[in-house]
Structure formats: C-alpha cells, structure tokens
Write a structure and sequence with these properties.
mainly alpha
C-alpha cells in the first residue's frame, strides 16, 4: 500500500501461511511479556517503513546502493554513538579508553560486517522490493530452528515442524503465484463446459 504497487492475489494470500508458520515455529518457546511485545511490534513496523523508504530511493529516485549507504551512515553513527554515550556509561567505557588491540580489531570487524550487510541489503532492495525482503526474512526463523536442531540437538515439537512447513509453503506461494494459478486453471475438471 505504501509503495503504491499491486501484487498478484496469491502473494497477498501467502501472508497467511507465512505469518502462521512463523508463529507456530516459535510458539513452543514463547514467553509473553507485554512491554517486550510492544517494542517488538514497534521495531517491526519501523523496520518495514525503513525498507519501503529505501526501496523507493533505490528504485524510483535511481540512487545506487553505495550512495544510499553513504547518505545513511553518518546519521546512523550519530544516533548509535549518542545512545552508547548516554546508556553505556561507567565501567564499559574504561576498556574503550585504554588501548586494546583486540577490542579495536573486534570493533573494526563489526563495522566492516555492518557495512557489507547494509550494502547487500540495499543491492537486494534495488533488485526486488521491500515486501520480498521481509518475506525472505522469515527464512531466518526456519533456518534458526533447523540449525539449532542440527548443531545443538534441540528438540523440535510437531508445532515447530508444522510452522516450518507453513512458512515454506507461504514463501513458495509468494514467489511462484503465476505457476500456482496456471496449475490450478489446468487441473482436471476445469475445462470449458460441455454442450449438450
């Protein structure tokens, strides 16, 4: 709606299984906390608005990914540095003020990772859409569950497996609506009515 784009009806329908699948996947470990739920909802809405704005800048204003990264890096630095100064006072700054090669190597590695992640996100947004990026973000829920099972031997409930299946089915619906619609139209019994 905010991007002013029309999508295939099956892409809208895919939101149901994707959201239900993500909810089922995490339902086993869910601990409801009202303020946390409010912060999570606000973060999700703000992240979506940010992605839509970035998509519009990249696709309609014809900015390239590197230019957008340069434009957003200084405000991000100021906000994060201000928050760090205000919220992380005291002992946490003592190590920063002392010269420690390992600490600064970790900080620089973290900065490099952040730059590469944002650059990759901007490139994907310029090629697809904000909605596609958020749908693909649900793969992380499935990936985290499966990696947790493979690496740490975590127990997955039947509800978790149902959630994984629903999420993957919803993502297939979102990415292949024309194929599904063509298969639905070509199934037996859907031909033209017979004349008598």
């Amino acid at each position: 709606l905010l991007g002013g784009r029309r999508h295939h009806p099956l892409q809208y329908a895919a939101m149901g299984p994707v959201c239900a699948g993500a909810a089922c996947s995490i339902a086993g470990g869910l601990r409801f906390h009202q303020p946390g739920c409010g912060f999570l909802l606000a973060a999700t809405v703000l992240r979506a608005l940010k992605s839509i704005q970035q998509s519009l800048l990249l696709q309609e204003d014809r900015l390239d990914a590197l230019s957008l990264l340069c434009l957003t890096s200084l405000p991000s630095f100021c906000l994060l540095f201000g928050a760090a100064v205000a919220l992380e006072v005291g002992p946490s700054w003592e190590a920063v003020l002392r010269y420690d090669g390992t600490l600064w190597a970790c900080v620089l590695l973290s900065c490099l990772g952040s730059v590469l992640y944002n650059l990759a996100t901007f490139c994907i947004l310029s090629l697809t859409s904000a909605l596609t990026v958020h749908i693909l973000g649900n793969v992380t829920v499935v990936g985290n569950l499966l990696l947790s099972r493979l690496l740490f031997g975590s127990h997955l409930s039947g509800l978790s497996y149902l959630g994984i299946g629903l999420t993957l089915a919803g993502m297939f619906m979102y990415h292949q609506p024309d194929l599904i619609a063509a298969r639905w139209a070509a199934r037996p019994g859907r031909g033209p009515p017979r004349r008598e």
